Model the fold of this input.
Amino acid sequence: MATTQLTPAQHAILAYALEHTNGKIDWFPDNIKGGARKKVLDGLFNRALITPFGTAWFVAAEGYDAMGRTRPTPASLDADPEIEAAVAAAEAEWAQEKTTERAQAKPRTRENSKQAEVIRMLQRAEGTTVRQICEATGWQVHTVRGTFAGAFKKKLGLTIVSDRAQGGERVYRIAAAPCKRPSQS
Done:
């Protein structure tokens, strides 16, 4: 195992914290003031030897290792029955609210999807514009055009036609399916 090389200042700061303040960094040698303190703290932090807790710094587990000290064992967390009961009640209330929301929400089906809404708009006699589709679905223009090319043309095989009135917006429609001629034999 490689040993961590510490500067004399880093060693003195960590040693003092471990021996006098239960690992809290609150003492610096007299020759380390102002910006030098920040640099020493940054150096210790960047090497994961100290860790912040609120506004204070404490020696991290790796700092104990670098000093050749045994890591402290974490205090056992005894469950507080009042807190446990409050958490359980809050979770039960949240679960009930979610169940109620799901029961009241209309499930999304193919018939009430945004894609189905756009197809209905394209089937109207007057057709629809990209702007109208964006307003109805919340999609951006590139999403509408991508849906025309991908989902509608390639995947669903729909033929989308467009025309533009003089000075007006381009209007899109689904073209009527061509009639198939009976084969002549």
About this structure: The chain has a mean pLDDT of 85. The first strand starts at residue 24 and ends at 25.
